[in-house]
Design brief:
Blueprint lengths: L1 H17 L7 E5 L5 E3 H14 L5 E6 L6 E2 L6 E9 L10 E9 L7 E9 L3 E6 L3 E6 L5 E6 L8 E4 L8 H12 L3 E2 L5 H11 L3 E4 L12 H14 L3 E3 L20 E4 L1 H12 L2
Parallel strand pairs: 3-5, 11-12, 11-13
Antiparallel strand pairs: 1-2, 3-4, 5-6, 6-7, 7-8, 8-9, 9-10, 13-15, 14-15
Helix pairs in contact: 1-2, 3-6
The structure holds 2,5-anhydro-1,6-di-O-phosphono-D-glucitol (AHG) and manganese (II) ion (2 copies).
Amino acid sequence: MDEIFDYIKKAVLSISNELKFPDTSYNQSQNKTGDTQLKFDVISDEIITNTLSKCPNIKALISEEKDESLILNEEATYIVAYDPLDGSSLMDVNFAIGSIFAIYEKKAQAKCLKAAIYSIYGPRLELVICKDCVNLYRLNKENEFIFVKKLIMQEKGKINATGGTQKNWDEKHAKFIKGLFDDGYRLRYSGAMVSDMHQILCKGGGLFSYPATKNSVNGKLRAFFEVFPFAYITEKAGGKTSNGLNESLLDLEFDNIHATTPCFFGSKYEINALLKAYNER
Ligand code: AHG
Ligand code: MN
Ligand code: MN
């Protein structure tokens, strides 16, 4: 698996270099979940496909920007699902964005997740690699990723990152979110899941939510390359996840590689509060 990490490091370094002078315009095309693709969504996807295709240990690639999985080597063990550019709608405003990777063994299902990785293209290039614990790395002047620290979620945080358009929230969700603000939580939401989750992980806690809404009853965020990798990372950091009903997002199973689900990632305190608010009569 370490070999796959090395190929991912090469891919994110190339994307980070390309991002210095990017084409921020849109293509005419849409991806499977209906987002209009930026030229850079497609470029990042190509960089990752071309780089990871050279790794002999990868059986298949699943990308947000490809309708179908791409089989590389039937004999190999690992399936890599990825969001090549997360937060791409923030390209034009020069906010931090990232790439997300999930490494599944044999089958693309949450139970088969063996590692999750994300990169942050911000003022610095950072990489978080999670196998058994959550390790933060930072690129140095020699283009090497240097270990910075282990990321750990405390029992309770202070940040409330609230996804979805408020007018489309249901009453239960609106009441729960307001309750956290009344309790002293601060709003922190950029619109790039990688950055919003990175802030919560680096500050040691808080809640990131993207609920079911009136216009998206299954939520917006995609299970295989957004929700599962961040659920894996959150839980390995000592936090908890849920879809509003269950005790872990990693209990979910989907057949459609572009499936979406309502999702909540946080410290144990916030997820327990969510489960109480969502499930009390
Ligand atoms: P992507 O750029 O890969 O399409 O993902 C965007 C996602 C996620 O990063 C973010 O949390 C969410 O969409 C933001 O959606 P809203 O603008 O609806 O809050
Ligand atoms: Mn995304
Ligand atoms: Mn994307």
